[in-house]
Design goal:
Number of strands: 17
Oligomer: single chain
Number of helices: 24
Helix content: 40-55%
Radius of gyration: 29 Å
Largest sheet: 9 strands, mixed
Structural class: alpha+beta
Strand content: 5-15%
Distance between the termini: 20 Å
Shape: globular
């Protein structure tokens, strides 16, 4: 392994820059490989274009005749771009994307063939579902699954393959992917929010859509170093490694100049992203060495989720061209900042109004307050579901580690808006006098834009923060599929808005004016959700203690967070809104628990292999050199050799002690892992891995990292942190 390490270092100096030249303006690349609405207008009949527009904008069904027309147009467009195959591109519950390629090529008679693609091929495929996670929702022998076209997300081309975004369901109809429940949640938030808008603010509102702007953080590591690190290859993170003398403490990497080799990777990634319709606009160095961030403009949530999943796929392909490996793991290096994926969520009407942005008059600001306060109320009621949605084995290494929000879910809104809510909390119950109503609208609600001017500070320690015209969900992990947190967010918000409208309508029926009823309900929401609002340092122990007093849960591990997911209240919100059945909720919970256990089982086995096959033999080899040195001292100095060899002798003892502990702990680790694997209950298994296997891994790491600082650098088998993070 040490040979691989030094070869990787040597190759770095000879790697040529793979210069990427942009042949045209970035805007001219945009959607080049997407069957966009503009492209559809060119290829489709008016009837077909109108039909698919209706499907995208209103969820209208597409007839089989129209599907045939769209399929022919898709085929013609694809063939003109050199495409040979098509696939239903979907997002199963294993965390990756999936695709089964079928050829357009179809023999029609001996010696003759044509390219064929029709409506039935476009609408549905039947991949084998037996090897995808189902959480026990079907038996292994029930292999059939269906992928079905999602016309709200446009088809795109990668290489010579036409990719058709699709949902994935079982033979019996249960959902087996991330997209299906997301689409249901987006429909529910549309109905609930549109109902509120039409009833109280703008009767012309036809549609409300959730928007999402994600920020993808990642590390770029030279491929040679990754090939010399089995832990990076198999787990995506370093299970061993002593911190370098210089890390991120000088704050000299964040927003610094981007290295040339990295810049070329970014330019190619941006170009290919734009071709696929991903509107990337931002790139910069992140806090940790060799850590970076990419972010697009916000989009409709379903499309944004597809684009993020697609981006993670193409990042890996493009990185290899530049002899890089993209590390999306939340914590690939101990002791430096990990990677997240902030999800910036808001709601927008069909006329383009952002419902979480203050307006120009009291009515628009009451509209803003309605959706703003309801969001806080939804998080106060279902914060545990948000926590469970971000719970993974990989994100556990990052949350609350002094760089990411804590496991306690709270909402930050800033001092300015806190003052507004404090004033609204004082609103008199029932009817308001004309003077009270005028004062409230003009002097408080009407002045919200002025109050917010330059007062939308950010709190990086908050997991859920208002940032001026959106809420930033900061605790999402960098490997996550955004669909999960977006499904939760839109589900609980849809439920909350329905409850809000019922309460307001009840007060109106009792004789209150519309605005009075809204103020009365919002006042109560402000009171009951106050416990979730926190403006201070989320990293502090004081907040942990304060949160406990407020009754907020501190679910520090994934098994704890996933156990909460199955509480009746949390199941009921999915069932009541029609997003998931109870059976589907329980199945998905089991899948997440199994994934947690499987990841820790892999990590523990890799760590044991590294310790036994690489670290201990290296330490013994170095120890033997020291022993030979001590023997030489004895030959020279005779009985007085200890006077000159005392330090070497003590060094040998220390190495021997670490080696002995490594052997003992490795055996214990494997025993714990094997014991956990045999457990049948998914929750019990995950908890055992968390409480027994993880701490044992940390113990092993301590001894290995100590040995790294003792063993001759020329002999150490694995690339070191200082090399991976600073050599470029």
């Amino acid at each position: 392994m040490s040979i691989l390490r030094f070869k990787a270092i040597e190759k770095l100096s000879t790697l040529p820059d793979r210069e990427v030249l942009l042949e045209k303006k970035l805007s001219e690349y945009f959607c080049d490989n997407v069957f966009s609405m503009d492209t559809m207008r060119e290829y489709l009949t008016k009837e077909a274009y109108k039909s698919i527009s209706g499907a995208v904008e209103s969820g209208d069904k597409i007839s089989r005749d129209i599907a045939d027309q769209i399929a022919v147009a898709l085929k013609d467009w694809s063939l003109a771009k050199g495409v040979t195959h098509y696939t239903h591109w979907f997002q199963p519950l294993n965390g990756a994307t999936a695709e089964k390629h079928d050829s357009f090529f179809t023999p029609i008679e001996p010696g003759k063939a044509i390219e064929r693609f029709n409506g039935s091929m476009l609408i549905q495929q039947e991949p084998d579902a037996s090897s995808f996670p189902s959480g026990g929702i079907r038996n292994t022998f029930e292999a059939r699954g269906y992928t079905a076209w999602d016309p709200t997300s446009p088809a795109f081309i990668i290489g010579t393959t036409l990719c058709i975004p699709s949902v994935f369901i079982s033979y019996t109809g249960e959902t087996l992917d991330y997209k299906t429940p997301l689409l249901k949640a987006l429909y529910e938030i549309d109905v609930a929010a549109t109902d509120v808008m039409k009833s109280y603010f703008d009767r012309n509102t036809k549609k409300v859509q959730a928007t999402l702007g994600w920020e993808q953080e990642y590390f770029l590591i030279d491929l040679g170093f990754v090939n010399a690190r089995p832990d990076l290859q198999l787990t995506g993170r370093t299970l061993l490694g002593h911190a370098p003398a210089k890390g991120q403490q000088l704050d000299d990497h964040y927003f610094g100049s981007i290295p040339a080799r990295t810049m070329n990777f970014m330019k190619e990634l941006e170009r290919e992203s734009l071709k696929l319709g991903i509107p990337v606009t931002t790139r910069h160095n992140e806090v940790a060495p060799n850590q970076f961030e990419l972010a697009p403009m916000f989009e409709e949530a379903n499309l944004a989720v597809d684009h993020n999943s697609l981006l993670m796929d193409i990042m890996a392909r493009i990185a290899r061209k530049h002899h890089f490996k993209v590390l999306l793991h939340e914590k690939p290096f101990k002791g430096v900042n990990g990677s997240g994926k902030h999800n910036n969520w808001s709601l927008a009407t069909d006329s383009g109004d952002n419902l979480l942005s203050p307006g120009k008059n009291p009515k628009q600001n009451l509209q803003f307050l309605t959706f703003f306060v309801n969001t806080i109320k939804a998080v106060a009621e279902y914060g545990d579901l948000i926590r469970s949605a971000i719970a993974t084995a990989t994100n556990d290494y990052r949350l609350g580690a002094g760089e990411a929000p804590p496991a306690i879910i709270s909402v930050f809104i800033g001092s300015a808006l806190s003052s507004v809510l404090d004033e609204l909390e004082k609103v008199k119950k029932g009817k308001l006098s004309p003077d009270e109503k005028t004062n409230l609208k003009l002097n408080l609600v009407g002045k919200i834009p002025e109050i917010l001017l330059d007062n939308t500070d950010r709190n990086r320690t908050s997991p859920f923060a208002f940032t001026g015209n959106k809420f930033e969900i900061r605790a999402v992990g960098s490997t996550a599929n955004c669909a999960e947190i977006m499904t939760v967010m839109n589900t609980i918000m849809a439920k909350q808005l329905r409850d809000f409208k019922k309460e307001v309508d009840t007060l109106i029926k009792k004789g209150l004016k519309k605005d009075e009823a809204i103020f009365n309900v919002l006042r109560e929401y402000i009171k009951t959700s106050k416990k979730i609002r926190f403006e201070g340092d989320g990293y502090s122990q004081a907040w942990v203690e304060e949160a406990e007093k407020r009754g907020l849960k501190n679910l520090v591990s994934t098994p704890e967070a996933l156990a909460i997911e199955l509480e009746k209240k949390n199941i009921d919100v999915y069932v009541e809104t029609g997003i998931l059945t109870e059976r589907e909720v329980r199945a998905r919970n089991e899948i997440k628990l199994e994934k947690y256990s499987n990841l820790l089982a892999i990590e523990s086995q890799v760590l044991a292999d590294l310790a036994r096959n690489h670290i201990v033999p290296t330490a013994i080899r170095y120890q033997n050199e020291l022993i030979e040195n001590v023997k030489g001292l004895k030959d020279i100095f005779g009985p007085d050799f200890m006077e000159y060899g005392k330090e070497e002798f003590e060094f040998i003892q220390k190495i021997s002690s670490h080696n002995s502990e490594l052997k003992r702990l490795t055996e214990a680790l494997l025993e714990d892992k094997d014991m956990a694997i045999q457990m049948e209950d998914a929750q019990e298994k995950a908890e055992y891995f968390c409480k027994n296997v993880k701490p044992r891994m940390e113990e092993i790491r301590f001894h290995v990292d100590e040995l790294e600082m003792m063993v001759d650098d020329e002999m150490w088998p694995l690339p070191k942190y200082r090399e991976m993070m600073f050599l470029r």
